[in-house]
Structures are given as C-alpha cells and as structure tokens.
C-alpha cells in the first residue's frame, strides 16, 4: 500500500508530503520547501528511506530546500515541468525577498510533462501538467489510494493565486476543471496549504470553481 504523511514546513506552512511504499519503506518527498531537520526527523520516525524528491512547482515555500536535500542525501529531483525554469533560477532572490534561509537553484534529474508517471517501489502515480498558478506546475495522482497532491492549484474553498509572473487565471480554471475533476469526486486532494478536501466537495462549494 502507498502511505503518506503531510508535514507543514516553512513560515508559509507549506504541506510537504512524505509518500512511501509500506512494503519496501522506500519514500519520496513532495515539495521540500524548507525545515530539512523536521523532514528528516519525520522520515526517521516513520522508518522511511527517502529515495526521490518530487516537485509540484518551484515557488520558494515548495522548492526552497530541494538543492540542499538532493545534495545531502544524493537524491534525484523529479519535476517540475520546464515552464518553471525561471522560478527555479529565481530561488535565491525569492529567499531574500521572503526572508527565507538562503536557497539555491537546482537542475531536475528529470523534468515532468503531462501524462508522465512516477514510480515508488511497486506503486505508480500519474503526472498531470496543471499550469495557471505557475506555468510549470504539475500534480501527482494515485488512483490506487485516490489521492492527489495538487500543490497550489486548488485549496479547500479556494484556488491558487494567478497574479505572479506568467500566472494565468483561465489556464488555472482549465487545469482544475479538465485535469483535476476527472480524477473523481471521491478523490481526496492534499493542497499546498491548509486542510485536505475532495474534488466532489469543491465542485459543489468552492466559490471559484463551484458548479463547474
Ligand atoms: Zn505556489
Ligand atoms: Zn505554496
């Protein structure tokens, strides 16, 4: 079975998720934005051996500690989509602007594109490209456990900001309605910030995309 635990990191309380196969205890960390000692301690407590880093998008609170973690544990960096190259390049400046610890750019071991898959032990997750909040944003979807890790595309009761450079409101709405909704009303999503919800609940009650 695929398991996950979400650990809020950085002053922005970003929902970093540790995902693992409970037969092999091989794990991946999604969006290590910061607080590496907290993340490493959580993995130790869980008995998870981190083998990969998966990135939804390259905002500082999601990707700020990627280079440090990859270097320290010699992990491959999977994602985001190439559309986020300029956000990766901008990590040092973003760290300064938001008064985060220093951050370095990184080179993904593998860029992700719509329709790709990522694999953890015997488990495969689907990758969907969901631009709008950032142009290179991707989400990770496990049909097996009906969970989607959606970063800053969709939140319980809200949607991602689109007022950043290369943000696009129409793209974001299309990403949500055409790429997230088909994952099913009963799929639980883990947003980049705040509590989990289901796509079905948001389709009904989210003021930005309800009724779509
Ligand atoms: Zn973001
Ligand atoms: Zn965020």
TrEMBL record:
Keyword Zinc: yes
UniProt GO molecular function: hydrolase activity; metal ion binding
UniProt KW keywords: Hydrolase, Metal-binding, Zinc
InterPro entries named in the record: MBL_Glyoxalase_II (IPR051453), Metallo-B-lactamas (IPR001279), RibonucZ/Hydroxyglut_hydro (IPR036866)
Cited SMART domains: Lactamase_B
Top-rank taxon, per record: Bacteria
Cofactor(s), by name: Zn(2+)
Positions of the Metallo-beta-lactamase domain: 13-193
Database matches in CDD domains: YcbL-like_MBL-fold
Segments for region (Disordered): 193-212
PANTHER family assigned to the protein according to its UniProt record, in alphabetical order: HYDROXYACYLGLUTATHIONE HYDROLASE GLOC
Protein name: Metallo-beta-lactamase domain-containing protein
Organism (species): Limnohabitans curvus
């Amino acid at each position: 079975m695929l398991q996950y635990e979400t650990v809020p990191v950085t002053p922005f309380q970003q929902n970093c998720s540790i995902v693992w196969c409970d037969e092999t205890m091989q794990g991946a960390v999604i969006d290590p934005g910061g607080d590496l000692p907290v993340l490493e301690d959580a993995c130790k407590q869980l008995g998870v051996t981190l083998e990969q880093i998966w990135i939804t998008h390259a905002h500082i609170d999601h990707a700020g500690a990627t280079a440090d973690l990859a270097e320290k544990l010699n992990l491959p960096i999977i994602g985001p989509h190439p559309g986020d190259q300029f956000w990766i390049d901008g990590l040092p400046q973003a760290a300064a602007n938001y008064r985060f610890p220093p951050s370095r750019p990184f080179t993904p071991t593998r860029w992700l594109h719509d329709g790709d898959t990522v694999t953890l032990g015997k488990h495969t997750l689907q990758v969907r490209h969901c631009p709008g909040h950032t142009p290179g944003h991707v989400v990770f979807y496990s049909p097996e456990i009906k969970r989607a890790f959606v970063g800053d595309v969709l939140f319980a009761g809200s949607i991602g900001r689109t007022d950043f450079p290369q943000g696009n409101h129409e793209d974001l709405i299309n990403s949500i309605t055409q790429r997230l909704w088909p994952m099913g009303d009963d799929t639980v999503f883990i947003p980049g910030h705040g509590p989990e919800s289901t796509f079905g609940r948001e389709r009904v009650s989210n003021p930005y995309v309800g009724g779509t």
